[in-house]
């Protein structure tokens, strides 16, 4: 899967914060140093969309000229829709060498990978057999500083193009927030065992009817040092290779032994 | 995790086709034979929502009296939102013994598990440490006949309550469409290696602007006989135990060996 040709690799860029977010602008700037960039990204924020796709409704796709010298499109759909449209419509006669998504404004470590629109774009690339990376900065500030991540994002991208990834995998890359201490390096690791403990904030609208805000506290059950939460807490960049076979293979034997059907 | 008490198990029911779908009415009727049922389901169809949750927007939740003698609520959010609201608001002082979702009008085999709202409700249950099952009928007709599945849905549910599931797993159960030949039985299996090959149907709106319908052809790469596509094609009910650790564990060694970072 490595790119050995002389021509520049073709890189499809998407995200979930929307095409005007600072994070995607930074990612486009970095990818332009490596390859030919085409952007298909949501026309509005799509955080928390998980692996949603647009069924039973139509999609819009329009040219957008906000990135200098880069072919870009804004799409009314989800991040997964964007990659599908990029692959099967915008670039349908060409081979995409890499799908990258982000840089997300906020962490997508541990369980958050399931809810992440950023990672759904990357996993959609992996489903197509294309190497793919989702980048997230563990800082929710829309004005967060991404510069400390530049060299690492370039390195991880170049290694992905040079060394390839096992088929049907996408990388979930999380970058610690900018601190006084420099980032220590990269840890290839597993998804931490953690979850969100939901708290619903119930309020009343002006007519007296109830409504809710979803909120929650993050609870980390994982005592290991080989997971993404540990890496970020210790100022490493976490790289979790992800796949989309949800089968709990260990449970098949259990059920075939214990169940009576 | 088995229910050994005398009291009836508490079963939270959700779906992605919306609270008025035939599939959830059938599931509620079946679950009432086994336990105490509480329903929290979307107020409108949520097919293809994957593991989306509602961030940056509010949620509504209202009592709905369409199921005789059953406490039920319709929610403006996604299937994952419904289970979160069911667990942390509606039933927050009680222990849920089982989360069931469906019966979906349409298959959620192989790769479709990623896009499935039905399964996101079940997986949300698994994240909470509660045994969970998503049921889908491989028939997209809203008026499809579910009766041939009754005995199997009851059996699988009873076994789940009696034998339990390994922690953090949810069952993805797909039921063949009604045929002249009776269902042959149940196969515990893995998710097939298959994907959707997208085809976008481009049209023009009355003002001349383009829009798209997402469509696609299902492509099955899997030659095995231990997967859900094989089971359905051979008139078995497929049961795939699913988990939510997306780590491609096999890729970690590869990257630690081959990559230079």
TrEMBL record, chains A, B:
Its EC number is 3.1.3.5. The keyword Metal-binding applies. GO terms for molecular function: 3'-nucleotidase activity; 5'-nucleotidase activity; exopolyphosphatase activity; metal ion binding; nucleotide binding. The keyword Hydrolase applies. A divalent metal cation binds at residues 16-17, 47, 104. Residues 11-198 form the Survival protein SurE-like phosphatase/nucleotidase domain. Its cofactor is Mg(2+); a divalent metal cation. It comes from the Bacteria. NCBIfam families: PRK00346.1-4, PRK00346.2-2, surE. Nucleotidase that shows phosphatase activity on nucleoside 5'-monophosphates. This is 5'-nucleotidase SurE. It comes from Mangrovivirga cuniculi.
């Amino acid at each position: 899967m490595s790119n050995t040709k002389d021509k520049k690799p073709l890189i499809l860029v998407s995200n979930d914060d929307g095409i005007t977010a600072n994070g995607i602008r930074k990612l486009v700037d970095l990818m332009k140093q490596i390859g030919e960039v085409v952007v298909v990204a949501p026309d509005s924020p799509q955080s928390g969309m998980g692996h949603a796709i647009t069924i039973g409704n139509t999609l819009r796709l329009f040219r957008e000229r906000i990135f200098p010298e880069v072919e870009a499109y804004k799409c009314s759909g989800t991040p997964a829709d964007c990659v599908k449209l990029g692959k099967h419509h915008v670039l349908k006669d060409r081979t995409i060498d890499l799908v990258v998504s982000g840089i997300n404004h906020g962490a997508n470590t541990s369980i958050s990978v399931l809810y992440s629109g950023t990672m759904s774009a990357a996993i959609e690339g992996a489903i197509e057999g294309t190497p793919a990376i989702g980048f997230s900065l563990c800082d929710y500030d829309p004005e967060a500083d991404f510069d400390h991540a530049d060299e690492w994002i370039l390195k991880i991208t170049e290694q992905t193009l040079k060394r390839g990834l096992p088929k049907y995998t996408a990388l979930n890359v999380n970058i610690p927030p900018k601190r006084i201490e420099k980032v220590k390096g990269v840890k290839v690791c597993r998804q931490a065992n953690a979850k969100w403990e939901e708290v619903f904030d119930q309020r009343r609208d002006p007519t007296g009817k109830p409504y809710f805000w979803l909120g929650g506290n993050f609870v980390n059950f994982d005592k290991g040092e080989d997971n993404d939460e540990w890496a970020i807490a210790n100022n490493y960049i976490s790289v979790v290779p992800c796949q989309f076979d949800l089968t709990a293979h260990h449970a098949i034997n259990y059920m075939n032994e214990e169940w009576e059907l």
